[in-house]
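#dry-run=false #mode=assembly
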Amino acid sequence: MLGEMLRPKSFAGLFAAAPSVALATLGIAIYQHGAAYAGSQAVSMMAGAVALAVYSIVVCQLLIRTELGAASATLLSLIAWLSVAFGVLALAGGLI
Amino acid sequence: MMPIGFSPSSLREGRWYEYLIRFGLGGAATVFTGLIGSRYGASVGGLFLALPAIFCASATLIEKHEIRRKREAGLVGSRRGREAAALDAAGAGLGSIGMLAFAVVFSMLVEGSVTVAFVSASVAWLVVSVAAWFVRRKLRFVPRPRMGEGTHSSTMSRSHSG
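#status=ok
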């Protein structure tokens, strides 16, 4: 909602990457499994954040350079998010 | 001059069910991430803390609102809608640097104090995101119009000049 009220739109977009889901999930993780578990989740979250940066660039380029609408561009770009997220995690040794 | 504006009247453009969809998606993403963590462990579960689940819905709604606004003015508005959603995505890209800062700070502090970790990580997200936006604004390249060309007045150029 805050993102909707702010101008310019690129600034409002910062709130599209707000860690709102992370705050809730990490809170539950601490309650259920303890601080160390939540800490290791946050380490993996770094790979997810890198993937989110790539995802945002891909969405932006698809919307500007193709005729795809927002729904198609954002859903199609999830392939990029998944590839980069698991790729970075694998490179960092998280899957080994 | 401060380039950031606040327009509460924009909320009136949204329908109640659009906010409900976003709220529902946020809850669903939290549950989904929790389930992934339980099934595949903290390492894979942690990745999904940065899943752009709500972003899909918000970009679609931004596009829809722009198209609606243009249609009310008698225009098609599909290109304008895509450009508005693209600007939101560009902002999300800068926000992801803030999200990275959140994860780094949280992982460093959580075993010391949970409250301090949450507060510091949230502050780190806000400071780094806003700083990244201002740095991008300072470094942006805006090509000058060639001699004889009219002023291009798309969403992109107007927003970049704002």
